[in-house]
Design a protein that fits this description.
It comes from Aequorivita iocasae. Its cofactor is pyridoxal 5'-phosphate. Keywords: Aminotransferase, Transferase. The protein is built from 28 helices and 26 strands. The chain is α+β, with helices and mostly antiparallel strands and 802 residues long.
Amino acid sequence: MAKIKHNNFLDTVNEVFTDAKQEGVLHLYAEGDSFTGRTIEVRNRSLFHFGTTGYLGLEQDKRLKEAAVDAIRKYGTQFPLSKSYISNPLYRKLEEKVGEMYGHPIIITKNSTLGHIGVIPSAVKDQDAIILDHQVHWSVQSAAKILKNRSVPIDMIRHNDLNMLEDKIKRYSDQRKKIWYMADGIYSMYGDFAPISDLMSLSQKYPQLNFYFDDVHGMSWIGKNGTGYVLSELGELSENVLLFGTLSKTFGASGAVLVCSNKKMYGEIKTFGGPLTFSAQLEPASIAAATASAEIHLSPEIYVLQQELRERVSYFNELLQPTDLPMIDENISPVFYIGTGMPKTGYNFVNRLMQEGFYVNLGIFPAVPVKNTGVRITISRHNQKEEIKGLVEAMEYHFPKALEDTHTHSERVFQAFKLEPKQEKTFLKPKMTADLKVQLEDSIVKIDKQLWDSLLGKYGVFDWDGLKFLEESFRGNSQMEHNWEFRYLIIYDQEQKPILATFMTVGLWKDDILAAVGASQIEEERRNDPYYLTSKVLSLGSLFTEGHHLYVNNEHPQKKEALNVLIGTLEKLEHTLGAKMIVLRDFNDDKDLHAYFQGQGFIRVQMPDSCAIELNKEENLETYISRLSSRNRKHLRKEILRIENLLDIQIVQDANLVQLEQIAELYSNVHQNNLGLNTFSFPTKLFANMWVHPNWEFITISPKDEPEKMIGVMLCYKNIHKTYIPAFVGMDYKYLQQFHIYRQLLFQTIKRAIELNYNHIALGLTAGFEKRKLGATVYSTYAYIQTADNYTLELMGILESS
């Protein structure tokens, strides 16, 4: 399978957000003439507000408001000069107050995103390395990627995995001066913590280890002077720690703050920090409001405010305890996450809560994996006990209703988040499908041959005979990547009519199979560890096959129910066979299936275009060529027919051992040179099995003056429904330009299919430009991916940025 297209991530996020917008849970507008913080008006309804990040409610404090208004009257709406030249008169007092809060030198930034872009490239030197927690905020990841331009290695660990972190530290310890670990203090979705104490112990063991903590969600509601979670755990800020806090969110104003106890580093960042130097400074109103807030933080009042919030958080925790709502992390932060699993369940749940009078946030991809969609609830001092209790009661009532509405059940939700229910009962048991018959087998020989070929045998190598061949080739091999599990699923109605059919494989995939070619730098790592960044994947179809792997009777009234059974089967197989990802491929732009798969927690990525040729009845080579455009006929004459006479072209159906060795070597050349199709090699017995299989044949080309020297081969399968499938190609790259090997093999494939009087040529994915010139029709194709977490996707994003 070839690499996905470069803009897929943005396209995918756009699709997910568009879906959520259409469901009325994203990109909303608050309404009303005023805002108190306790309620928020949406669609002409006043809702209790459980979505704020102003946990202490200081954004509504009268002192901050009056300070902001007074500053505008005195200094205007902005002070339009770079701080490098001159700062607003109010800045000095703000810097003094915030510095007093932390007891260390500080730098005020316009916001945390610009702050990270300014600080990280200044603090991290070319001799250093960066390791990211995969859930660290996007703004930190984005700033870190800038360092790729200076060849600073950037790596990533799974969330809070200290064993993995230590392994990465060991890897870089002999190569790099400093190793920076970058993490959030409090993570914005689940509200969980960075293990600060354990991290500092690790730094005692490895003196090169430095930390960059983004603690914007830990600010104000905890710690001395409200300086946040990280500093409350550290006690004292050591020189190997850079700490980011915020003057917005809980602080009630605007801007961000960097705290740095290393005087030399502080001086370098302060003097020149990219956007810290060139960006506009904070507006007078923001500076004055932040100064007023800092004065509160420096007073005993901050501890009263913290206690009031703590009481509300404790009360919410207390009410949640006896419920079986899937709360993802139980802690003392004001951020809570209730899992819904599938996006469509999340949409339903959020809309139900809004109808009950409660505003909450939807947690969705890319902030969380798609199948880890849920509701993020934040508690603030604005919330009163009666509405906190009301929210819990509403969630208890509506959660099972949302599951029922979206044809799912709580068992799936708990499984998606790897949680155990707190009680024996579940809200909704899976619905029985007594009116559907499900046949699930582990070998094609257990499936009726005529039935299978009528459903899925039309266009691919996966007719009944082809699958029997694949089972024989991908079982009993010495290397794990060459052994696949096969499963065959047919779903029938009560009258034994098939509604849905497919086959699935579980095998070891390289994690960068769907990444841009640049990510395949990790092949260097695989020289020492061949299974570096690999995972077991459950896939519709297989890595050997291309085409429509899923048969669905779209006219059947139980189509949706059959699809639900398919998804349930995939989830069970994923669990029992130990897969880490589910991949559904290859689909066209089917809007109904797209909406269904997306609602079931899959993200869509566009694959390389698929190509096919339909041959007319009684087609001959002359009539086929006449159908080409004049431009393409000219291309054919110049680059293919002119050279054809220089080649010895054979159709080999009974290859000898020498030929098989040549074929395997030529295929290996293409496999090794095309990291866009970054898969493991195939087992050696595959080519021997092709040799003895009546449906396989090889189109070989050799120079006429060296007929024993094979320089190109097309491995072709003859499908039962008269489809000719050039499945794989092999080439000697030394002769590629001289003989236009690939173009010649494509032409010989078409020529052979016409000679056999076949109806269809399935040319497969990639090389659409070359295939189109020879008359192929090109189709867009898509895959749907569901992962246990976003680690692999985010890691590939880091690697691709190089």
